[in-house]
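Dissemination and training. As part of the outreach component of the grant, students in the summer workshop were shown how a complex can be specified as a set of sequence lines and then modelled as a single object. The example used during the hands-on session is reproduced here so that future cohorts can follow it. Participants entered these lines:
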Amino acid sequence: MLARRSDKAVESKVVNIDSQMKIYIGGGCNSTVLLSNDGRKAIIVDTKYFGSAKKLRSKISAPEITIINTHFHLDHARGNKHYPDAFIISGNTNWKQWDFDTAYSRHPDKILDPGEDFDIHFDDEIVHVSDMGRAHSPNDLIVFFKKRKVLAAGDLIWTNRHPILLDKNVNLKLWISYLEIMESSYDVHTVVPGHGNISGKESISNMKEYFTSILRSINFPAELKKLKYQYADYSTFLFFGNFSRTVKVMKNEIRNNSI
Ligand SMILES: [Zn+2]
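and obtained this result:
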């Protein structure tokens, strides 16, 4: 989803995981970049948008580039157009939405379906791409760098901010189930959220607790009020990323019997 305006302020922030892996924070979304030992290949998870996408492009000189889009929302995928020769991996989706959000950039070369996994062997790293399915978008992927224990979670994890719930395919019940899988099946040391600061494994549990605490309190206004206060320091996004929005979406899901 669209990033907060204040992301611009931090777009130049780069976190070095090690000599080959860097995380470019903000400027649309967080982008994870892994460079091969010989400098010839790079894997980029999410390409940002607008000026930040261009800036990111200028930092990467490797001639062979693989892009993994955790989902197609414009703040994650519009930068794809700066890499016309890249090999692109993403989830199966509504291509009309893809075309709009990416400004008609090329469709992926490798298209995953929900539940499908794909591994890339990259020097001594194994890059595990898993298509979780629908939750924040029609199809959300996560990328796990097994050796480094780094999980690029896309917009399934937001740290210290309310998730933007705008896509008509949003499904919180499935979202919670994916967080449970991430908690139990991945030996994670570092989490790169789609938006917000890098953190440890606790950000998976925090995200799950955010949703489940609201779910537990959904019929108890006094409890919801307490929770709203508890999450008062979380960043918000106009209309679609705030406590009331999450409550509303959850109530809708309950009404439609999908939760
Ligand atoms: Zn998104």
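The helical segments are 50-59, 74-77, 95-101, 172-185, 202-217, 221-230, 243-255. Students were then asked to discuss how this feature might be tested experimentally.
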